[in-house]
């Protein structure tokens, strides 16, 4: 998700009751230490490994864009859950190079999903504007298991969609997430506000969905 201008135009409608209800129902921030692996995990393909290993750890990866037909086909394909192995050099390199990519001046963003660098695996980076210091954090196999009925609108852009911005009306104000960390731990967490939009945008990428799908024209 693109960086510039996203923090402006704050239009959040507060619905304390809905949000509090979700928190109470979900047990916000509970942490389980054991990893909970997902079904249908997949290993990296030869093409993915070649993209991941195409350069060193300090180099950004090429961002796939909708103005290329072959890139578009990939961006519209669902990603697979990933088998987490802390000693997997391909996974560790992908994680590092995605971080370099989303922080590169040519592709600066507030979030990025693996399909955007040509890898159909369930890995995203999200900038946590809801945490002190607004750190970037990586999430493996992220899933949204609950959405608030309360919506929020914010202008979005995407590193993969050149020259297009818009306000999807369908973003939930709060979401309940499940994900793994790179250390294989499993977490469940409630996220709200702008950071929840970034998660929804990036997890959509893992399902072949682009923010423009929600826009009318
Ligand atoms: Zn995007």
Task: Tell me about this structure.
With 217 residues, the chain is an alpha+beta fold. It has one domain: Peptide Deformylase (Alpha-Beta Complex). It is built from 5 helices and 13 strands. It has helices at residues 16-26, 46-52, 69-75, 89-102, 194-206; strands spanning 11-12, 31-32, 41-42, 81-82, 111-113, 123-127, 136-147, 151-153, 156-158, 161-166, 171-172, 174-180, 186-192. The strands form 4 sheets. A 6-stranded antiparallel β-sheet has the order 2-13-12-7-6-5, sandwiched between helices. It has a 3-stranded antiparallel β-sheet with strand order 1-8-11, covered by helices on one side. Strands 3-4 form a two-stranded parallel sheet. The chain is globular and about 40 Å long. 35% of the residues are buried. The structure holds zinc ion. Zinc ion binds next to helix 5.
CATH architecture: Alpha-Beta Complex
Q: Unreliable stretches, pLDDT < 50, 5 or more residues?
A: 9-14, 16-40
What fraction, in percent, of the residue positions are helical? 10-25%
Count of distinct strands? 13
What strand line-up does the widest sheet have? Answer: 2-13-12-7-6-5
Percent strand equals: 25-35%
Our count of domains comes out at: 1
Distinct ligand kinds: zinc ion
The CATH first-level class comes to Alpha Beta
Largest sheet: 6 strands, antiparallel
| Rg calculated over all Cα atoms | 17 Å
Average pLDDT confidence is 87
Order of helices and strands: EHEEHHEHEEEEEEEEEH
**What form results from the Cα inertia axes?**
globular
Cα distance, first to last residue?
Answer: 20 Å
Report the structural category.
alpha+beta
């Amino acid at each position: 998700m693109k960086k510039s201008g996203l923090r402006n135009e704050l239009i959040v409608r507060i619905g304390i009751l809905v949000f509090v209800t979700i928190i109470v129902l979900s047990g916000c921030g509970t942490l389980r230490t054991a990893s909970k692996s997902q079904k249908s995990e997949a290993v990296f393909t030869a093409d993915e490994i070649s993209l991941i290993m195409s350069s060193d750890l300090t180099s950004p990866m090429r961002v796939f864009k909708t103005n290329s037909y072959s890139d578009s086909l990939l961006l519209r394909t669902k990603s697979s859950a990933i088998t987490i192995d802390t000693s997997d050099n391909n996974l560790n390199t992908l994680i590092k190079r995605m971080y370099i990519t989303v922080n590169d001046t040519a592709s600066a963003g507030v979030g990025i999903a693996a399909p955007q660098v040509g890898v159909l695996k369930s890995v995203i980076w999200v900038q946590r504007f809801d945490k002190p210091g607004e750190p970037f954090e990586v999430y493996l196999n992220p899933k949204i298991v609950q959405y608030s009925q309360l919506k929020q609108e914010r202008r979005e852009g995407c590193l993969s969609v050149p020259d297009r911005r818009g306000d999807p009306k369908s973003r939930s104000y709060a979401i309940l997430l499940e994900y793994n960390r790179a250390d294989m731990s499993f977490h469940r967490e409630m996220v709200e506000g702008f950071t929840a939009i970034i998660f929804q945008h990036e997890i959509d990428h893992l399902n072949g969905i682009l923010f423009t799908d929600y826009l009318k024209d």
